[in-house]
Amino acid sequence: MKNYLFGIMLAASLPAWAAAPTDADLKGGAKTPGEIATYGMGYDLQRHSPLKQVNKANVKRLVPVWNLSLSNNYPQETQPLVIDGVMYATTTDATVAVDAVSGRQLWRTPVTLPQDVHAVTCCGSHNRGVAAYDGKLFRGTLDAFVVALDMKTGKELWRQQAADYKDGYSITGAPLVADGVLITGISGGEFGTRGFLDGWDPATGKHLWHRFTTAGPDEPGGDTWVGDNYLRGGGPTWLTGSYDPDLDLVYWGVGNGGPWNPALRNAGDKPHDDLYICSALAIKPKTGEIVWHYQFSPNDPYDYDGTNELILADLQVGGAPHKVIIQANRNGFFYVLDRATGALLAANPFVDKITWAKGIDLKSGRPIDSDITTQVRNTPEMDKPVEIWPSALGGKNWSPMSYDPHSHLAFANTLNFGYPYRTEKQEHVRGQWFLAMDLNGWTWPEDGKRGYLRAIDPLTGKSKWKVGFDVPNFGGVLSTDGGLVFTGALTGEFMAFDAANGKKLWQFQTGSGIVGIPITWERNGRQYITIASGIGGVYALFGGDERLKNVPPGGSLWTFALYDAK
Prior knowledge:
This protein is mainly beta. It has one domain (2-562): Methanol Dehydrogenase, Chain A, CATH 2.140.10. The chain is 6% helix and 34% strand. The chain is built from five helices and 37 strands. It is globular and about 65 Å long. The chain starts with a helix and ends with a strand.
């Protein structure tokens, strides 16, 4: 209550507040560099800005203009929004509003969580951001609630429960507002849960629709499951989708099957596809109706989530223009899909080593299994592990890439290690990990480079350039018309690279590891770049990397500008 009242008093000193953002604001998000109104810096999730005041020639003069403590030691994976001169960011246990130019906190609304909730999350206690619409902010919580806040004051307006966290469910991704509907996904694929998407009325919190992402017996795709395994079949939807207003289609990625062991899911039967795990879904935002789907990794054994960002782009394919979706999938292949139909247009490796598949058949759209994967699919309990590349963390993990619509290059933090994979039998227990495989260590590369920042051609998967890192990066990527690519390191450095050749041009030590998502925006003629710092996440938890032991926790927001800009 105290925070809410303080927010009301501050509202009088703020710039004039619009009832924003509107549908038109959200649709034009990528073209209004002064505002960051959506997750992904636009419905297309391209994370590319036309701003160029900060460029290759002057980026060395970039300096911090403010830093704000987030009073939180959990991983800071948030992507802030900037609307009407106010920045909005999330942590696991709070939502904050900040004067974007001065860094002064305007209000902070706590999130009260059950004490035991952190024990039933997969990969760290974090939150990736908010959606904004019609004067309200929307976020998910670690105990699987959807919450609406007043943008002026931070007052909670409504709260709805999406699932029971004691089953292993949580909400860590930013919501999406499309065609007036608030859409949320869900985490929990490691706990034997059943994934879904929800549609909500932004004004009232009324539940409009519920779409399961593992198909039941009476649904299309239900025959791709054995028995009632779909009820514990995974299919989490834990990252935010994209939206094409012209087609009125939302594109949302679906994650791993549950358990990871596919032979156990098949219950002694032949391998089944297990729709819609590891897929891209095109849905109608008003109803949740699935218009088309494409499955990247049928009957997935390896935790190759299909949840990575589905970027909307315009490409020449075979000499003809196509409106496409591009994705750097965890399975190591870079996909190009027709976004009206889901037809596969290209699929090529974007990492240096893949052992699970020989390639992707463009006619069928299906992977060509290696002998190793054939063995895995048919062995419920293996005596010895086999070496799988990429690892369960993928050729690229969740941290979003950017896409430059001028050069037609995607800039991505990619991973370069495998893991020993051995199936085993396991019974499902509520609220406990349900993998049915022995997750025991990693297979590191001989050259010591566990990750690369790459500039990738979406149609070929080939890298125009790549920069290697001993400790892989798990921060998001931002590119700009200034010819720059920004990203952060787990060891704390915020960095800028030349988009043409990958040369590092600038860096700044933020004091903790970066797993957040950079943004850039403009106010009163000055360009700013913002990043959240605060170590954590899946590699910090499970990588066993001794080089991170002296990187302190501590969440904060950093904002930079040219020191001599007027």
